[in-house]
């Protein structure tokens, strides 16, 4: 087995991502306070719902900040695979919280639809909603630009979240517009719509986090593509047991690479590293590849059922060569299908060693090679 992985993101990268997220959190903090306050004063349920939405966004910003702080720590003795799943667990927490928020918003809105409440104070609610739309759209533009510069998927997701927040404030505006046109129930309908939007987003986030936490495999097409890329290496005879799982933005892949049976350990290792390099280069999120090298006779040859295994080198020599081996002899052992072939490479002029008369069951053949005189 061997394992390789790509370099970690630079400190500069992490700092920039942090700055963008911090700014977003600050805007969310101000917006949530203003919207909840103004919504309560103006009796606009949709505005309060939007404010609660901003509050939950602030919470998810905090999770993102904590996750980039703790989730990006280098692997250590107690977490040898890294700490990225802290981020995933945080996402699950935020998703659960959002579902609760959405439920509360919907509950309130449904109650409001049944009894006509006090009139909405448009002069206060409307400007706040307009400011919210503008602030969120500006945040979208800013975050999207940073995400492109830093090539960060987390930031892209964050940017689109800002835009969906802008849309949610547009819905509030529409509801308030309805109130202005003499349809007061539109405020509650807008709140209900927001609750549905939040719940949908939360369920999607939560489902993805759970899928990752239980190590759900990537889609079949993706696994096939990875297998195909590995088999592109000419020295690879086949690939089996390819597995992949996700850890936040990283993908971890392990696979068995089938190679010609009599190549050396170092050549097998070299081939494995080439497979690993291609997977990491060809598949963006693939970051760590662990490979296992399997010797196979040909592409179609299936391995026999496992019987008792032949002995390792020292015990095998003791059994095969009762008088020992001559000095300076090089010996290659090929363990295939529960049997061993032995290649002996003798120095010029050295006579072949005495081989035991009791041929062991696991012995395929002994081939003796003599180095040519120079
Ligand atoms: Zn290696
Ligand atoms: Zn949001
Ligand atoms: Zn295997």
From TrEMBL:
<feature type="domain" description="Cation efflux protein transmembrane">
    <location>
        <begin position="22"/>
        <end position="214"/>
    </location>
</feature>
<dbReference type="Pfam" id="PF01545">
    <property type="entry name" value="Cation_efflux"/>
</dbReference>
<dbReference type="InterPro" id="IPR058533">
    <property type="entry name" value="Cation_efflux_TM"/>
</dbReference>
<dbReference type="InterPro" id="IPR050291">
    <property type="entry name" value="CDF_Transporter"/>
</dbReference>
<dbReference type="GO" id="GO:0016020">
    <property type="term" value="C:membrane"/>
</dbReference>
<dbReference type="Pfam" id="PF16916">
    <property type="entry name" value="ZT_dimer"/>
</dbReference>
<keyword id="KW-0472">Membrane</keyword>
<dbReference type="InterPro" id="IPR002524">
    <property type="entry name" value="Cation_efflux"/>
</dbReference>
<keyword id="KW-0408">Iron</keyword>
<protein>
    <submittedName>
        <fullName>Cation transporter</fullName>
    </submittedName>
</protein>
<feature type="transmembrane region" description="Helical">
    <location>
        <begin position="20"/>
        <end position="41"/>
    </location>
</feature>
<keyword id="KW-0813">Transport</keyword>
<keyword id="KW-1133">Transmembrane helix</keyword>
<feature type="transmembrane region" description="Helical">
    <location>
        <begin position="89"/>
        <end position="107"/>
    </location>
</feature>
<feature type="domain" description="Cation efflux protein cytoplasmic">
    <location>
        <begin position="218"/>
        <end position="295"/>
    </location>
</feature>
<keyword id="KW-0864">Zinc transport</keyword>
<dbReference type="GO" id="GO:0008324">
    <property type="term" value="F:monoatomic cation transmembrane transporter activity"/>
</dbReference>
<dbReference type="InterPro" id="IPR036837">
    <property type="entry name" value="Cation_efflux_CTD_sf"/>
</dbReference>
<keyword id="KW-0410">Iron transport</keyword>
<comment type="similarity">
    <text>Belongs to the cation diffusion facilitator (CDF) transporter (TC 2.A.4) family. FieF subfamily.</text>
</comment>
<feature type="transmembrane region" description="Helical">
    <location>
        <begin position="119"/>
        <end position="139"/>
    </location>
</feature>
<dbReference type="GO" id="GO:0006826">
    <property type="term" value="P:iron ion transport"/>
</dbReference>
<keyword id="KW-0862">Zinc</keyword>
<keyword id="KW-0406">Ion transport</keyword>
<dbReference type="InterPro" id="IPR027470">
    <property type="entry name" value="Cation_efflux_CTD"/>
</dbReference>
<dbReference type="InterPro" id="IPR027469">
    <property type="entry name" value="Cation_efflux_TMD_sf"/>
</dbReference>
<dbReference type="GO" id="GO:0006829">
    <property type="term" value="P:zinc ion transport"/>
</dbReference>
<keyword id="KW-0812">Transmembrane</keyword>
